[in-house]
Structure formats: C-alpha cells, structure tokens
Fold these 2 entries.
Entry 1:
Amino acid sequence: MASSTKKSVLIVGGGAVGAIAALNLEVGGLAHVTLALRSNYNAVNEHGFDIKSCDHGRVQGWKPSIIRDSIPDITKESLPPYDYILLCTKNIPDIPPTVVDLVTPALPRINTHTTLVLLQNGLHIYRPFLESHPQTLVLSAISMIGSEELSPGKIIQDEGDKLIIGAFPNLNTNPSTSAAKCFIKMYKNGGKTDCKLGEDVLHDRWRKLVYNSALNPICAILGLDTGRLRLAADGEVVEHLVRPAMQEIVDAAKANGVLLDEGVVQKMIDADPLQSYLSPSMLVDVKKKGNFLEHENLLGEPLREGKKMGVEMPTIKMLYYMAKGIQWRTMEGRGLVEIPPKDV
Amino acid sequence: MASSTKKSVLIVGGGAVGAIAALNLEVGGLAHVTLALRSNYNAVNEHGFDIKSCDHGRVQGWKPSIIRDSIPDITKESLPPYDYILLCTKNIPDIPPTVVDLVTPALPRINTHTTLVLLQNGLHIYRPFLESHPQTLVLSAISMIGSEELSPGKIIQDEGDKLIIGAFPNLNTNPSTSAAKCFIKMYKNGGKTDCKLGEDVLHDRWRKLVYNSALNPICAILGLDTGRLRLAADGEVVEHLVRPAMQEIVDAAKANGVLLDEGVVQKMIDADPLQSYLSPSMLVDVKKKGNFLEHENLLGEPLREGKKMGVEMPTIKMLYYMAKGIQWRTMEGRGLVEIPPKDV
C-alpha cells in the first residue's frame, strides 16, 4: 500500500518514456506508482524491466509498486482517485481510442482531485480535455529524454531525462503553479533528473516542435538517425529539408505570438550529439512496422495554426501529407482500411 | 553466329527491362542479341530466364543468342562492332561507373557504325556521350513497360511493352530518322509490342517525367504502389503531393519551350490501373535495400532546368533532397561513405 506521505501516481504507458518516469518517481521516494502497460505487460510482469539508463545505471528485474495490464476503472474497482495521472502513451488523435477515452475510467466522474500530466508531444493536446473534463487541471510535461524500448521491457536510455512542467491554460481551473511545483518536487527528489517549471507552456511546446516537426518526420521518412541526417549528402539534407522545416515552425510560432530564441533552429539541428546517432521516436515507429505516427500533433496542428495566420509552410505541409500516406499504409497493414481486390 | 540479314544488338543490362527487350528482339527474328548481365548472370546462365509476360506469355528456360557476364571489349576481343547497343541499366550519374565508362569498351574507338539506344529515364542522358563519343548516333527509347525481376532471372511483366524511339539532338551527326525507323522495324517484327517513332524526343521525355518525377519518388518514399497511393488518406496524398509535383514538371517543361497536352497530369495520375497495384521502379529499388535511385535524372535534371527558367518547384525540390538522403543511406550501407564512430 502507498504510504500516506506518498502521492499516488498512475502512469499510463510503460514504453521507453513511461518506464523511465516510473523508475525515477519511485527512486525519488515521494510517489507510489501504478503503471498501466499494454503490449509489454507479460514481459514486465514475468521478468520486470531491464533498464540501461544514463541517469539510473543498470536496473534489472525492476517493477514499480503496482503494474496492471489495463487502465483502472476507479469507479468499478472502488479505488481512491489518483493524485496524478501521467500520460506517457503516444497521442494519435486519428486512431482510436483517443487519449480522453483512454484515461476517463481512471478519473472521478466529476474530477477536481486528480491532476493530469501529459508527457506527450504536440501543441494543443490539452484541448480535448477542456470539453470532456473541464474541471480537471492538466499539466504539460515536455521531455527531452532519449530512450528506446529495444524489446518488450528492455529499455535503453542514452540521453538524460529533462522535463519541463507547466499548466496548460484553462479558464475553469485558473491553474496556479502549485500542482506543477509539487510534481516537480516529487520528480526531482531522487536527484537523478533535471525537472523544472516552464512558465510559458505554449512557448515551450512550440520550441520543442522546432525539433519534433522537422527531425522526427524527416528521420522517419529517410530512415536516418539525427547524426546520419547531418552527415547525409554533405549536409544538403539538413540545409534543404531540416532547416526550412524548422524555420517554418519558428515563423508559425511568431505569427501566433510566440517568439522563440534567436538561433533556435541551429540549436535544434545540433541538439543531439552527432556521434550519438540517436533515433527520434518517429523513426523508431517507422522501423517497427505497425506503429502509428504522431503526425497530427507534430505536423498537422502547427500547420493549421500557421495557416490560420497566413504563414506559408511548404516543407511542413509536404511532411504532413507524407506522414499521412505512411499512416494509411500502417492502417492497411493492420487491416483498418479495405482496398479493392487486385485485378488478375 | 548472327545471320547476315540480322542486325547485331548488344543489350547492356538484363533486368526487368533488358530481358523483355532481348526476348522481344529475338522473337522478331531480325536481331541477333548479345545480352550482358551482371548480378543475375549465374542464374540465367544455369537456368535461363523464367518470364511471365502479358506480351509473350510464359517463357521458361529461355536465353538470347549470347549471354555474357561483362560488357565486351570489342578491340581486345577483336569483335566486329555492334549495329546497336541498347542500354537497359539504371542511369545513375552520382554513382560510378558512368554509363559512358560502362559502354565505351563495346564501341569502336572512333565510332560511326554503332547506334546507341538509351532505354533509360531522364531528360538529358545523351549529353555525356556528346563529349565522349561526338560522332555516335544516340537514340532515345522511352518505355512504358511494367515489369519486375522477382528474383535473379525470374521476371514478371504485367504491363505491355510500349516504346517510343527518336534521335537525341546532335549537331555532329545530323541525325535523320532512318536509324530509329530501322530499330522500330526490328523491334516490332514479332508483332507483340507497340513501338513507334517519336518526332520530338524532348517533348516525349518531359512527358514521361510527369509520371516518373512524381510517382516514382513518392511511391518509393511512402512505400506505396500507384494503386494504394491513389487510395491513401482518401486521395489527400495525390492532391497534396502527386498533383503539385506533376504540375511543377509541366510548368518547367513549358518554361523550357515544351508544351505538354492539356490534362496530362490527370492522365498520369490515372495511368496505372488502380487495381493493378503497380510498383514504380524506384519503389522496387527502395524495397530491395541496396539498390541506388535514379533521382539525378528524374528529379535533379528537371529541377535544374526549371530553376534556370525561374520556375518554382518546391515539391520536386523536396523530393530531390529526400532522394539524396536515401541514396546516401544506401551508399553508407554499401560502405561507400565513412562516418565517425559512435560515442559510447
């Protein structure tokens, strides 16, 4: 059972990001973690996680306080509400279930207790909750972690866990920073990670998009990690694809009132050490055939925001429709779309 | 030995295109074919070709008059010059050897006898021969065949062989149409194929680029055949990627004085029957990891021609640099580029 001084945290999704968050929270000693797994439940239940982490070292056979193979339905199971629910799944609005449908059973019917923390990419991912759970405080967690699940339960983290936490705007809850600060204290308590308050969530999310909207899809489409991408064709791929895509995000942010720091494009191009040869998540998803892409949040949403303000985004637009094509291919592979039979 | 009434034809490259050309020429009875093979030489030498063709039916254990595992050096081997050399390899100027280097040993030192026929894609592929072999008559062969080599020597042709033959411009040879007409007679003689004279090579090559510059790279990048591409994301991929790319080729052609027929874009979008689910060659190349792409001729050359005339080609430009990235990946896979070691 959770000690009364600990906060109860439900983490949804125990892949490369969720597992490290679970480990880090339990190492900190201020959280009692329930981790809801899907595809890797059996592996983790049997053998625990096998984690090789630049923050935590080698951790073998480890499990958080509670693991589950589904999201708890707290009403049916008569469970007390969680203090925090940390969403670490992919956020893919074009493929059901939506994150709202996923998390609703774990929230009280009318929720003012549980704070949602969206450790997911993209610009306006809180908006669906404004409609479904208008009284729920929703925090943004922006992660700069580099980690990958090599096989079920086997995780390698080769870039330090750095989180920026802040409250998404919500006129109903008038969010103060106290819930964010409490989460940060809990997350930092193990002394292994960098977790800080972001005063301007929208700014921080646009800033991360500079990396994610460009490097994620381009690496995925070309089958190159971020190191190789910089080396490819003597840097021409960076100059003619990555840099223009990043600049379009900077321009769209600016048109939406978000001024990013001078030089952010070059900083993001150089963000990953070249010789680390890191694979952004979308490249991992494409390589693991069958994984869906988060292109609606990474490309579609900034494209729509830019378009509203009249910003031309030809590179982002092309990447968006390419990602749509790849998503359709995955859907067909999974039997989610039917096509006319081949003429023989 | 070749009968004296037959023309001697050397075909370089016996993949999906060259093998069907060899078969068709020998079926016609007016040509004595020498076929130079590389990767599939052993398979064909041992078992012959296994061809399933919509033009020729099932042909098993078939070989042309002569097969070779290399290009003949006619000087060293004291061979008479060929009447025609038909180049059916990929044309990839960024990866050695160049087609000029490839074919030079099979041409007389000062050649006025042998007619070169380039059965290859792209706009200005004759230009390197103007410098290296200024007296050589070079014909353009534009093929609309749909065929694929499933495994070495095993070929399936599911779209009829249609050739358009014409002479590339050359101020030295003042090419008449007689060599082209002679080749057409020889190629059509079996009655199985459609082979006709193209009076305007440049027009015909730009026209084929409408298909090749758009569908080839987009299918390759997305991993979708032309049927699935039309179905993907309810047609959005066609509308936002394929149609703009094709229109840019039409615009660049126009700026270069080549007026393509009204409606050519829609015709090319619909060119392959949807339910045939045909794979353009570049998609086949990407799937068979390790094959190089013809992006310099299909994308680079029209892009440069468009740029000269001030035509904006944002879609073609992006496709070009994406193809460059994929080419670099293939080069790295083949050990043709070195990268700094991974930091551990």
Note: Chain A has 13 helices and twelve strands.
Entry 2:
Amino acid sequence: MGSESRESFLPLDPVSFTNESKAVVDFIADYYENIEKYPVQSTVEPGYLSARLPESAPYCPESLEDILKDVNDCIVPGLTHWQSPNFFAYFQANASTAGFLGEMLCSGFNVVGFNWISSPAATELESIVVDWMGKLLKLPSSFLFAGTGGGVLHGSTCEAAVCVLAAARDKALKELGGWEHITKLAVYASDQTHFTFQKAAKLVGIPPSNFRLIKTTFSTGFAMSPETVRSAVEDDIKSGLVPLFLCATIGTTPTGAVDPIAELGKVAMEFKAWLHIDAAYAGSACICPELRHHLDGVELSNSISMNPHKWFLTNMDCCCLWIKEPHLLTDSLSSDPEYLKNNASKTKSVVDYKDWQIALSRRFRALKLWIVIRRHGLANLMYHIRSDIAMAKHFEALVRKDGRFEIVMPRKFSLVCFRLKPTAAAEAEDDGRELNSKLVEAINSSGRAFMSHAVAGGVYVIRCAIGSTLTQQHHVDALWKLVQEKAQSLLTNHSIK
Amino acid sequence: MGSESRESFLPLDPVSFTNESKAVVDFIADYYENIEKYPVQSTVEPGYLSARLPESAPYCPESLEDILKDVNDCIVPGLTHWQSPNFFAYFQANASTAGFLGEMLCSGFNVVGFNWISSPAATELESIVVDWMGKLLKLPSSFLFAGTGGGVLHGSTCEAAVCVLAAARDKALKELGGWEHITKLAVYASDQTHFTFQKAAKLVGIPPSNFRLIKTTFSTGFAMSPETVRSAVEDDIKSGLVPLFLCATIGTTPTGAVDPIAELGKVAMEFKAWLHIDAAYAGSACICPELRHHLDGVELSNSISMNPHKWFLTNMDCCCLWIKEPHLLTDSLSSDPEYLKNNASKTKSVVDYKDWQIALSRRFRALKLWIVIRRHGLANLMYHIRSDIAMAKHFEALVRKDGRFEIVMPRKFSLVCFRLKPTAAAEAEDDGRELNSKLVEAINSSGRAFMSHAVAGGVYVIRCAIGSTLTQQHHVDALWKLVQEKAQSLLTNHSIK
C-alpha cells in the first residue's frame, strides 16, 4: 500500500517526537546565539529560493538532518530577522521562551476549541486569561466576563476589526430595517489609523467611498480631533448617510500618536456610532500605572483590541478583543449547524468561541498568553515595557544632541520618529525626503540594523521602534553610531556634489 | 523599575530557552504516551476552571514547574483529546511530529512575512510549497505559480472563503457599475455545504436572503444537482439578482458527499458565476491516484481550498487556497500604506502575501507544510490516507454484518455514516433520532471514544470519522465493540419499557 507498513510509519511516536523536537530546540537556540551574525534584513534577491529547492515534492521521506541543513542553508539567509536585537523596523514582534512554550503546548495538544464541548479548557482558559489581561489594563468591568462584557483571542487586529464592524453593521441594518441600507453606513478613522480598518470596512461590505479618513496635523501630534470628526459626521448625516463606526488608536503605526478617546467617545455616543479602540501596539504599555492614562475614556467605547504579539513577549499570533455587548458579536457571527449541536451549547451556559470570530477552527492560543503572564509576572512585564521606553528615551536624547538631526514627533512610548534636517536647497525641495530615505537604505543595506519609515503631515520620518526582546542599550548605542556614520557619509557626498 | 534588573530578566536567553523547551517536549511526549488513559471527551462541568485558577494575574514570576503542574492538573482534564486514537468526531485534526517541528521553527523564528521584504524566505517558501501541494493534487497549471495562477496559506477555510467571496464581489460590483448593486448578488451552495460559507457570504455583505441553500437528497448521495442549481439561478435572474458565487464541496462535513464539479462548473461558466471548490477534508485524499477523479472538472473552477490541518498530518492551522486569477484577490485586498512601501514591492516582481489574505500579520506556516511533506514523502502520505480509508472500510464491514445497524450513506473516504435501524413504533415516530442520539451520548459519556452526529435528508446519522494519527485497527475494533455494547444496553432497556 505504501513504502512502509503501519508498524514502521508512526508519525506521532513519542520517542521520535522527543528526539526530533529536542534537535529542533537546539537548532533554534543556536539560531538565537548567532542571530547577530546575520544581516538583519535579508540580502537575497527575488526568486532566490526556487533556484535552491526542487520543483515538486519528494516521493520518499527525507531525514530531519537533511531538512535542518536546508533550513540553515536556504531559509535562514532569506529571513529578515525579527528577533535580532538590531531589528528596529515596523513594530516589533517580540518572542519569549514563555511564549514559545505556550505555542509548543498549543501545537502539541492540537485541540480545536470551536465550541465549549470540543475542549472546555481551551474555552475557559481563554475567558479567564482575557479577563486577566483586561484587569492588567484596568479595563472597566463592562468589558470583562467578571462584569457584563467579555473577550476573545483573535489572530490579528484585522480579524478583530472585521468582527466588530460586522457586529456594528448588523445591529445598524436591523435598526434601519434592511440590508439595502448597507450603502448608507459610514466609517470614520484618522489618516494615521492602521490601513487594516479600511480593509476590514471594505471586507464587510461598507462602500469604500463611505470611509472617512479624518485629517490630522502636527498641531495635535497627529491625534484625531473630535471637532473634525463631528463635522465630518454632520456632513454625512446631511447627505443621508448613517455614522456607523469610529476607530480611535492608542499608539498609531506611523508615529505612535494617541487619539483622545474620552472626547471621541462623547462624539460617538451622541451620534450612536460604535467606538472601537485599536491599542495594537501601545496597549501593552498601559499595564504600567504611569501610562494607563492613555486609556482614560475607554468606558465610552464599545470594543477595544490590543496585540500581545507585538510588545508583550507573546509569540505570533495573539490579539485580545474585548467587547461590552458580546451578544452583538454572536448575533452577527453565530451559526448552529446540526453537526455541532450539543447539550452544553443548548443550555447557553457556556461560551462557544466560534461565534466570536471569523473561522470555525481555532488554535488554543490562551495557553500562550497565560504562560507569558505567569512566567514573567506583572512585575517583569512592567520592567520589560519600562526598559524599552528607557532605551527609546536614551536614543531620543542622542538624536537631540546632534544638531544635524531632529525629533519630528514627541515620543510617547518606545517609538522614536526622527530625521536629518533638510538644509541644502536640493533637500528643501522635497523637504528632506530623498536624503532621509537614502539614509534608511544605507542603514538597512549595511545589514547591521533594520529600520522603517513613515510619512506624517507630509514629512518623511525615520522610525526607530525599540522592543525586540534581545535588544539592550549597547545595541541602541551601536544603532546611533551607525546612523551617524551613514549620515556623515551621505552629507559629505552631498556637499561634494 | 521592576523586580529584576535587565541582566537577570532575559526572556529569550538561549540556555533557559533550551532547558525549558526540552522540559515541555518531555511533557508533551508523556501526554502522548498516556493519552489513552484520559476520557476522550472531557468530563468537566461548565465553569470548572474558574474555580481552580486565580481571578487575576500574578505580580511575581512563577516557575515552569508550577505552570506545568497546573497544565497537568487543571488544563488536561478539561481537554477533549483530539489526538486520542479514540477520537472519531467531527473531522480529525491530525498532528504529527513533522507538523510540530514546523510549528516550533515558525514560532522560534517568529518572523512576520506580510510582504516579501519583511522575510523573503517566508514568502518564497510559501509560494513553492503551495505549488508542491498543487502538483500532488494534480491541479492544472492554471492554479500554480509555475503556471498562470498561484496559492496562499490561510488559517482556515472561512478565511479563504471570505477572501474569494470579496474578490468575486468586487469584480462583479465593478462590472455592474457600483457598490449599490451589492444587494443583488446571490450565492449558491448546497444544504450540505459547510456553514462557514454562509457566514463568509454574510461577512462580506451579501444579504443573507440572497444565499441559496440547494436542497440535496438521498437519490444523489447528497451531492448537489446541477439542474437544481441552474433552476435556482434562473429564478434569481428573473427576480433581478446576479449569480455571483457557487460553492461545491469534495467531502461534505455531514456525510462526506462529493458534488459533481465538472457539471457544476459548466453551470457556473454559463452564468459567469465564480466557482469555488471546498475540499477542506477530502482534498488530502486526492493525492492518491485512485481518488484523484473526485477533482475531475477542477479546471472549470476559479478557486479551490483544502486543509492540510485536517487529514494531512499538519498541526493547526493550515489551509491551502489556490486561485486562477490572483490579481482578482489582490485587486480586492491590497493596500499600499507609506510605512510598508519598499523597492521590492514597487517592482511588482515579488508576492506580498498581505494582499492575499484578511490580516496584515501572518505566521510562517509554510515551514510546517514543507517539513510535513519532506519528512513523510508522498509515499508515506499516500500510505497514511489509504490506511485510514482501509480502517473505515473495515468499520463499515463490521456495521454491515450486524443486522440491527445500517450504513446510511455510501462511504467515499474515511467517514462512515451509520445508525441503529428504527424498528419499534416509538422509534419510527422520530425515525430513530432519539435512539441514535442516546447511543452517541452513551458512547461519548463512557470516555472510551468520542463521536459526533449529523442529519442528512432528515435522517439522524452517527459519524465515525477515522483519521487521528494514533488510531490503529485495534482502536476501531474496540470502538465497534463499544458501539455494540451500548446499543445492546439501549435496546434492552427499550424493550423492557
């Protein structure tokens, strides 16, 4: 029937499971040991891998040794090393041993907890751990299972956005009296809001022309102005649209800006729009009492999400979503096919998380977040956030000391937005865009660090996002030295021309 | 600043990473060794876990030993053991050592390959491995990167469904001339199609009243009739609707039925509707030449998806989606925010998978599928499918030999649908529903096996889904003995009453 008999083909035999898994643990530990030796951004050319791998699958089994050799020779060179201490791009995805252990248990048990009965522990631990996380953030009890709300773990902010947008949409369509009103629904966010909300709104069928990008400026530090929102909403109402959804952000992707959620909450309430708070990046920081004020006003929102897989030492993927009225989520997303019917669900005494998310299937992500929190404890989690912020402050101070540079936006968390000041006439023409983009390219192509950029208020800024687990202050010092060295070389070339 | 200094707080230190990870490997190996000792379906009561765990997160770090003790004492009893050889419910989620190793590498590297530059290997390996998989299934080159199409790894069929529905929707709205036509779009599937397609259609804004559930019957083995689809489409066109999307299934969830895709493809083409093939469960089986005919006609479809995380020894989560015209997917889902702009993307010579899926962030799932395929080889993967089917045939034969039972639907893959024949007057009244549901309950509450049920054509059937990695023939024999024992006891009690 095949090349091996059932007796010799044992794909989950505990002995070989143990041996092979431990070999891979050693492989990964070696990778971490050596991670600083690799160029942070991969230097491969498009198409590099197809030249190195066969065009089709092998007929016979291959050894783990051969596979790991290929991982080492073919895959590692094509990685951009997110776990490198010299990774300062985008927002970090900071792994930890605890997060890894949680992923191992999740994958090892490999249960599919779509409803309570299919693995009660998967459902109940998730409900407990989202409450733990909510309490760490001092969310009002209206968002907790211990109160009148509840939470769920998704894979991404976009998934959370799709689900709350669908919940808000279906509530509105019910009130408006029919699906034909879908083209009247309008969604509001700032021009700094993560593009995932535009994508999510379009996904759930809101016409893209009904998505309002509220303009932000330097004057508010790129925070969304409640007055501008109000005026956009009023205009839309005059044109016959219905304000459905407003998204506020704590720590925007381009510059780490914070929208004033208390004031935005009042506007949203006045117009009966759903207020969602996207705290994907900076939510983690709000476990520290001195930073919690950024969430003031959260009680006025309908839902809030944040990503432990960014800054909370939780390996990919993990997004917490809390919602005040979970029944709005389940009204929109629930289904009850015969083949999933069971007594526990019938009693309505249990949570069936399939009705809180897009998919039926789901991984046991709660284990990971639970282990991350327990293995570190609030004390070390706060320490971790604070030391990243301290390093960012340190970098900011280094930038400020060098007159050729400027801090473009005030730093709030561990993201520093800076640039070389445009001085020469050629630079003033494009407000330093080319100069600074060349600087980023020079830094990244050195392989010694990886950074990314943004544009806010028309200004091109270099983003230094500190938060990789392995980053220590000497890495930040080395980064600054590298930035200065590359800037010097650019400016010299420039003045020679 | 915290309870520990940066020097002593090292959440990704290679030495403790190694030690703690190996302890968890041993824990999971022990779990597999002992898995048959646990009741397959958890016996806990709703709310069991909140009584055992603290209400809020700890302030100080806890030891791995304490955490693993709690996993053992509090979590394991609340698991329904999907990896048990006595798990015969739903469809299996069959884990393997190879799949686990792939998950470890994915989590260890923890790269976020949303676009090519953010980790070229993550993108390129994914493109290569979906082509490998497509070739194993003998998909036409119109679905492969090596041809004119392409593929992507999603987390679930529902995600794939949302994405292809959005692509089809946006193409249609463009042709129809505006978003207001969204309420005219109609979607077709059979009453056996997984509910996830109804959910996905509603998610993307198709009015639920425009979702047509085509009735199936015993006469076609619960396959969708092309004539019935045609007649539904024609009726809708008469009412001013636009046929958007038809979903055909290879191996339906209730009974494993197979829709006639070649004939359905002709209907879809005639009315310019998008044909999607959901081969979530049975797609894996089509790597065997003797089963490949179920995919005959696939060339007429626009997209096809299947889940290696069901029957292909690939740990959760992994869903392959192939599409003939990838530009329709990216037209609908792409975005180009300034903070992700880069030279590689600008040249359009690379794939940016963020534009092929819902979320921005994504895990490096390709490693897992790649290692599963290489570590087993096509030979053993076919052996694995065939031995599961052989065990299902064996179970089917056992059922046929016992005159009290009947096979309700012809078996096509490794799912056997059977029931106790209703004989007594009381049983005939509900066509044996109560009797058979009591039998399932008796089996499941014994803890010795876990099965689920479905209803097709009004008939309640017990589903015996064979495919857990650890299942061997003696487990199937024991299951049948258990079924007979519980049936005997039910029938005796019944006749006493």
Note: Residues 366-401 of chain A form the longest helix (36 residues).
